[in-house]
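I'd like us to work through together how a protein chain folds, taking it slowly. We need material for that, and I hope you will provide a protein of your own picking. Go ahead whenever you are ready, and we will take it from there:
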Amino acid sequence: MQENANTVQAELEKALSIYFRRNFELTGSSRTDAGVHARQNFFHFEDAELVAAHLSAAVYHLNAILPFDIVIAEIKPVENQFHCRFDAKSRSYEYVLYNRKDPFLSDRAYYYPYPMELSLLQEAAAAVAQNNDFKAFSKKNTQVHHYECKIKSSEWSLDGHVWRYKVTGNRFLRGMVRGLVGTMLRVGAQKMSVEEFKEVLQSGDMTRVDFSVPAQGLTLMAVKF
């Protein structure tokens, strides 16, 4: 799906209401900014009247109602206490850039035709995995009680003219991944040293972070429970 999570949730609630002829209120597993893609996301709702045997047929009809860029893969019953946001163990994101003109990537990646050093990007990514306080990489007006995130993996790779940054963590702050990518690009372009990047990680100062990379390069790849 290509819409932000709030738009997706609204479209899903609308489709469910049309098909089942009653109101639905969904809770999502991850929030995304407008323009960010998602290959996988989860939503849960409570409805005692919904019969499990009807769910498979409902998927087909709901997909016919939904916009083309939103697809329901499955609806299944879960335990009453399940919460798809708080019970998620990890979330994985991928940011894609390309440094040679490629029309097949224009809506799914960031065109960045500048030289970069992969080894420097990899050093910066390793520093991300060793950090646990990401206050500097959280945009303002975010409703969180703390800025701690446990990063399980963080790495850059290069395949031809396509650069990929993959990161997995238990949670992410608003704008965090794009802030990490934008700031690491300064390291890769040798406009910031790895040591300076580590200082930014520990500073808690968002004014030193570059949040400017566009949304279309970012994709929520997976949510694990």
Q: What stands out?
A: The chain has five helices and eight strands.
